[in-house]
């Protein structure tokens, strides 16, 4: 059966089959500035609840900083061998300033009067500001994961390798990167770069549950 995605300039499904969680990167290869910018734009364009994007992404290329992070990331070589390490850090808490700053951006970008956005702003505040800090942190981390998913797909389309990692000591990473000073905490780490030829896992067949197990058509 023909798939509409196969008609695109980049065969999206082929790219998803090509990608895998890279276990060993080629430390001699680095992303070009253009490719890095493309990945960052993909993150920037990611969907987010209400459009708020309550997270930041640290783009780490400094070898010394990567060496510092590696022990806190279960000593995984991807941290030091990848071209760049992207740390998705979500807000631990937030107040109305998060919403107000977004409304100001909407007003400026779409050339709308702030008064026309009052109702939407009050709706967001009624749904979000009453949440307890723990629930807020869970919600913001979910938004960071949406952006990370977009990164993985964009990288695959560009034949850039990635490895989404939850295997790290959150508090130590936060301390090294001084995330607490910014009201942030690390949610997910994604090294990006190019696979090493000797990484045998690139040749493994992709294992996924069947469509019958995954999808329920109603």
UniProtKB/TrEMBL annotation:
Alphabetical list of InterPro entries matching this protein: NfsB-like, Nitroreductase, Nitroreductase-like
Superkingdom of this protein's organism: Bacteria
Residue intervals of the Nitroreductase domain: 17-194
One Pfam match: Nitroreductase
Keywords: Flavoprotein, FMN, NADP, Oxidoreductase
Cofactor field: FMN
Family: Belongs to the nitroreductase family.
Name of this chain's protein: NAD(P)H-dependent oxidoreductase
Species annotation: Robiginitalea aurantiaca
């Amino acid at each position: 059966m023909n798939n509409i995605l196969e008609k695109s300039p980049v065969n999206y499904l082929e790219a998803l089959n090509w990608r895998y969680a890279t276990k060993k990167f080629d430390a001699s290869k680095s992303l070009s500035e253009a490719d890095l910018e493309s990945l960052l734009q993909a993150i920037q364009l990611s969907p987010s609840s209400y459009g708020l994007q309550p997270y930041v992404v640290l783009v780490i290329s400094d070898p010394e900083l990567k060496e510092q992070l590696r022990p806190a990331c279960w000593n995984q070589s991807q941290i030091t061998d990848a071209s760049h390490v992207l740390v998705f850090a979500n807000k631990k808490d937030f107040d109305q300033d998060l919403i107000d700053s977004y409304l100001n951006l909407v007003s400026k970008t779409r050339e709308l009067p702030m008064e026309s956005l009052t109702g939407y702003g009050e709706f967001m505040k009624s749904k979000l500001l009453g949440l307890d800090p723990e629930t807020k942190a869970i919600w913001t981390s979910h938004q960071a994961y949406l952006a990370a998913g977009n990164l993985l797909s964009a990288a695959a389309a560009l034949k850039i390798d990635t490895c989404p990692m939850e295997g790290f000591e959150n508090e130590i990473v936060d301390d090294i990167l001084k995330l607490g000073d910014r009201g942030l905490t690390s949610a997910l780490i994604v090294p990006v770069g190019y696979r090493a030829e000797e990484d045998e896992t690139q040749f493994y067949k992709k294992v996924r549950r069947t469509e019958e197990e995954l999808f329920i058509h109603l």
